[in-house]
């Protein structure tokens, strides 16, 4: 059953795209900045987990955690020493700054790990399950569960908790948010740490399945952005649905049409959405037109 | 042209004209002519990007892709179909122009981040196509045996001929661009950069100008790509990937985003940096580029060249007085 | 009364659930200075934005000199002869004072990419003409001595005047001024009133003016229309409006408290 097989692999990568898209959404919701370095957090997460596991011989769960924390710290560093000084600059400079930071991360990763791809052992050992004649890797389920858990958790966090609501207020109107006593700076910081950590979690989860190398970040980032836009920038559920959709479309293309062009699927989808309906399928045009950028 | 530009242009012509004569006589640096030919080719791209990004305020992360379209048109038409190089170059321009127009019209309706992402996505798609259409492009292993540049029996073969051809083109494009930015069209670009709403209310057809400057910059990139193809006589998709598009942004930023001379100086500087001075640090190249771009974008948005030039000018005035 | 230059027919504009303009029907005769007043949020700037094409009205139609203009992009409306200034001064700060006004001549000049890039004689002649005319407008508003300064370096009062010069350079028949006196001191406001009257008298331009400064409004406008929650509350000459009971109640009355 090829179709089911493609569906499984599509859902797996789709969950990763959803996680990357979430990363964009969190920062966007708090600052209205699009962080072009988002994909590099994923790459860094995967490679750091390999480092903690293979070089420092941490138990796998610790390696996972350590990697997420480290990348979260990179997000902190990025906000504290780069974004904080650049936030008031024009959009053009902001874009270039986040691109520059992504190149710095990529260049550093190349120095540490070289150009070879690395692998990581799966979270749980064992034969793949056979469902309707298609093999489902145990790791795929991990990826899917990690992704869904994070989406659900974040949606609740942003819609229910005090902190989540406060973070959203920062983007809508930072001055008003500050006046009602929300520590805007702290919220921005939190958003960068959170989105870096989430990207890293996705990176660790996917590495056992598809390996990881220093220059995977840009493409992952762009596809994730495709999911974020398709789902309507800032919408968590939209990101999840759109991410899974892109993943499935990509894997069907790889299966039935051409594996070489599978990477182009998400990109073409991104361009089409941007050209036809830039507010996405869950977004609102009127809200989009009053955003700062 | 303003008086200042005339003086700079004079110095520029002198320097560029004499450079190969001086360099050729010194054995250790005689290959600098080759580096300068590349720098000239890349300058054509960065002048276009400077018009687009510095003057009209629109970002593009697809310049390397447009360069690739021109280069591969030249490459494919001369190798597979035996076309004369000059004709292939023209076709490259037409194809790039049409593609850039098709991408530009919907893309340039988008603001800031979205525009950057759209051009980035387009650039990656072109890169994927170059890798996948193996029968035409040779795929990742490259396209070999591209003919040199020539018209009829007249072939451009010596490094000197190439050097003067390329830099002659740079000079022409530079003059054109300097004139353009000091005209009603240049003012329209600056107005769009500063405040689209106000520009439009004053009667500037904003989307039309955005598309036109986008196409212009793509045409310059395509032309540079064709020159590159005929000069190197070998192409591979790696030369037209995302990293190169970012390098072009960096070249413009080093020069000062709104400084056409700066774009050329920045391009020459970075070309020498990566081909000569940083060669032994090849593994650090990406990191160093990232750091330079980060520092310039954060702290010296007016660009290194502009800052240094202003300092020198002030010092000169003080010493003179 | 004179021919109607601008006509609004039941123009409405919604933002989400908010009605910024509700069924506004109104006409501006040619050759007058017409003020629009009303409390904050009455829809004055929204009306300007609909007329100048920043966004289209949600429903209704707008005619300029008999031509329907609602929904046209703003550069086309500008080409028909409508120019404007902005509430928060929208100068091109990356250009000099003179260049700002020269940009205003964009529609009156033709040179294309090739002519500009190669500096053809036709373009040079045109450029001289653009400079000459731009200086005329700077002279008209009294900024000719500042032409080489960066536009952003001027004090606010002069920036507002420069914005008017830039708008005039497009040779409009209708000029929309959005709170031109906002942030100006008394002396500057007086000069501004003088300038607005000269724009009408010397250049023959019809002026539509959104303004909070009641002295300026009463002194220099021929007609006043009062907007209140997106609808026309009253209109007439300044003294008629001043004595209109509804107006006193919702606007002047509340201001007096």
From TrEMBL, chain A:
<feature type="transmembrane region" description="Helical">
    <location>
        <begin position="141"/>
        <end position="158"/>
    </location>
</feature>
<dbReference type="InterPro" id="IPR001851">
    <property type="entry name" value="ABC_transp_permease"/>
</dbReference>
<feature type="transmembrane region" description="Helical">
    <location>
        <begin position="90"/>
        <end position="113"/>
    </location>
</feature>
<dbReference type="GO" id="GO:0005886">
    <property type="term" value="C:plasma membrane"/>
</dbReference>
<keyword id="KW-0812">Transmembrane</keyword>
<dbReference type="GO" id="GO:0022857">
    <property type="term" value="F:transmembrane transporter activity"/>
</dbReference>
<dbReference type="GO" id="GO:0006865">
    <property type="term" value="P:amino acid transport"/>
</dbReference>
<feature type="transmembrane region" description="Helical">
    <location>
        <begin position="6"/>
        <end position="26"/>
    </location>
</feature>
<comment type="similarity">
    <text>Belongs to the binding-protein-dependent transport system permease family. LivHM subfamily.</text>
</comment>
<dbReference type="InterPro" id="IPR052157">
    <property type="entry name" value="BCAA_transport_permease"/>
</dbReference>
<keyword id="KW-1133">Transmembrane helix</keyword>
<keyword id="KW-1003">Cell membrane</keyword>
<feature type="transmembrane region" description="Helical">
    <location>
        <begin position="58"/>
        <end position="78"/>
    </location>
</feature>
<keyword id="KW-0813">Transport</keyword>
<keyword id="KW-0029">Amino-acid transport</keyword>
<keyword id="KW-0472">Membrane</keyword>
<protein>
    <submittedName>
        <fullName>Branched-chain amino acid ABC transporter permease</fullName>
    </submittedName>
</protein>
<feature type="transmembrane region" description="Helical">
    <location>
        <begin position="33"/>
        <end position="52"/>
    </location>
</feature>
<feature type="transmembrane region" description="Helical">
    <location>
        <begin position="188"/>
        <end position="212"/>
    </location>
</feature>
<feature type="transmembrane region" description="Helical">
    <location>
        <begin position="224"/>
        <end position="248"/>
    </location>
</feature>
<feature type="transmembrane region" description="Helical">
    <location>
        <begin position="260"/>
        <end position="276"/>
    </location>
</feature>
<dbReference type="Pfam" id="PF02653">
    <property type="entry name" value="BPD_transp_2"/>
</dbReference>
């Amino acid at each position: 059953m090829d179709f089911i097989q493609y569906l499984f692999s599509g859902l797996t990568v789709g969950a990763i795209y959803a996680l990357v898209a979430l990363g964009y959404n969190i920062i966007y919701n708090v600052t209205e900045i699009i962080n072009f370095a988002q994909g590099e957090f994923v790459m860094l997460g995967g490679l750091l987990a390999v480092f903690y596991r293979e070089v420092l011989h941490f138990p796998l769960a610790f390696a996972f955690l350590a990697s997420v924390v480290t990348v979260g710290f990179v997000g902190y560093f990025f906000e504290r020493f780069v974004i904080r000084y650049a936030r008031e600059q024009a959009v053009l400079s902001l874009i270039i700054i986040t691109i520059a930071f992504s190149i710095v991360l990529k260049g550093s990763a190349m120095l540490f790990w070289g150009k070879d791809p690395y692998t990581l052992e799966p979270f749980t050992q064992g034969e793949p399950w056979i469902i309707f004649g298609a093999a489902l890797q145990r790791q795929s389920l991990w990826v899917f569960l990690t992704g869904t858990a994070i989406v659900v958790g974040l949606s609740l966090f942003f819609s229910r908790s005090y902190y989540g609501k406060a973070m959203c207020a920062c983007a809508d109107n930072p001055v008003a948010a500050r006046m009602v006593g929300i520590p805007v700076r702290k919220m921005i910081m939190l958003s960068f740490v959170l989105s870096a950590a989430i990207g890293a979690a996705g990176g660790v989860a996917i590495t056992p399945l598809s390996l990881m190398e220093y220059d995977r970040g840009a493409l992952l980032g762009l596809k994730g952005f495709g999911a974020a836009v398709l789902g309507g920038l800032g919408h968590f559920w939209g990101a999840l649905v759109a991410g899974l959709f892109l993943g499935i479309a990509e894997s069907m293309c790889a299966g039935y049409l051409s594996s070489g062009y599978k990477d182009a699927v998400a990109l073409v989808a991104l361009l089409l959405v941007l050209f036809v309906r830039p507010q996405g399928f869950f977004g609102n045009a009127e809200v989009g037109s009053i955003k700062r950028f | 042209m303003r008086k200042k530009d005339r003086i700079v242009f004079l110095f520029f012509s002198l320097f560029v004209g004499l450079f190969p004569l001086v360099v050729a006589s010194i054995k250790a640096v005689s290959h600098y002519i080759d580096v300068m030919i590349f720098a000239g080719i890349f300058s054509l791209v960065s002048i276009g990007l400077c018009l687009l990004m510095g003057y009209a305020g629109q970002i593009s992360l697809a310049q390397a892709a447009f360069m690739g379209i021109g280069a591969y048109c030249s490459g494919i038409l001369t190798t597979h179909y035996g076309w004369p190089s000059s004709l292939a170059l023209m076709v490259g321009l037409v194809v790039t122009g049409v593609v850039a127009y098709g991408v530009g019209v919907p893309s340039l309706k988008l603001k800031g981040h979205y525009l950057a992402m759209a051009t980035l996505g387009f650039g990656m798609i072109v890169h994927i196509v170059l890798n996948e259409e193996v029968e035409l492009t040779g795929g990742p292993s490259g396209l070999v045996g591209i003919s040199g540049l020539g018209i009829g029996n007249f072939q451009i073969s010596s490094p000197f001929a190439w050097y003067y051809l390329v830099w002659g083109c740079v000079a022409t494009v530079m003059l054109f661009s300097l004139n353009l930015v000091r005209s009603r069209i240049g003012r329209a670009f600056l107005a769009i950069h500063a405040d689209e709403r106000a520009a439009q209310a004053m009667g500037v057809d904003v989307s039309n100008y955005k598309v036109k400057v986008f196409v212009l910059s793509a045409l310059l990139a395509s032309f540079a790509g064709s020159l590159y193809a005929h000069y190197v006589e070998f192409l591979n998709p790696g030369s037209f990937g995302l990293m190169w598009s970012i390098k072009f942004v960096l070249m413009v930023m080093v020069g000062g985003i709104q400084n056409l001379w700066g774009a050329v100086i920045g391009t020459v500087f970075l070309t020498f940096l990566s081909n000569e001075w940083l060669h032994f640090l090849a593994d650090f190249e990406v990191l160093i580029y990232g750091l330079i771009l980060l520092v310039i974008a954060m702290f010296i948005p007016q660009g290194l060249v502009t800052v240094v030039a202003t300092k020198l000018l002030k010092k000169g005035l003080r010493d003179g007085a | 009364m004179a021919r109607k230059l601008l006509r609004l027919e039941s123009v409405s504009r919604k933002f989400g659930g908010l009605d910024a303009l509700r069924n506004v029907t109104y006409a501006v005769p040619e050759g007058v200075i017409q003020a629009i007043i009303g409390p904050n949020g009455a829809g004055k700037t929204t009306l300007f934005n609909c007329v100048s094409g920043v966004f289209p009205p949600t429903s209704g139609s707008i005619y300029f000199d008999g031509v329907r203009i609602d929904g046209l992009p703003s550069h086309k409306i500008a080409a028909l002869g409508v120019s404007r200034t902005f509430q928060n001064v929208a100068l091109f700060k990356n250009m000099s004072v003179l260049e700002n006004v020269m940009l205003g001549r964009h529609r009156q000049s033709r040179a294309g990419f090739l002519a500009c890039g190669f500096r053809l004689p036709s373009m040079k002649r045109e450029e001289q003409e653009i400079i000459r005319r731009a200086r005329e407008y700077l002279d008209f508003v009294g900024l000719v001595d500042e032409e080489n300064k960066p536009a952003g370096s001027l004090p606010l009062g002069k920036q507002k005047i420069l914005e008017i010069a830039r708008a005039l350079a497009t040779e409009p028949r209708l000029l929309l001024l959005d709170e031109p006196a906002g942030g100006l001191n008394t002396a500057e406001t007086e000069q501004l009133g003088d300038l607005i009257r000269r724009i009408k008298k010397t250049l023959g331009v019809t002026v539509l003016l959104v303004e909070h400064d009641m002295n300026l409004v009463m002194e220099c406008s021929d007609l006043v229309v009062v907007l209140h929650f997106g609808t026309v509350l009253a209109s007439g000459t300044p003294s008629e409006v001043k004595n209109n009971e509804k107006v006193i109640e919702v606007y002047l009355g509340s201001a007096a408290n």
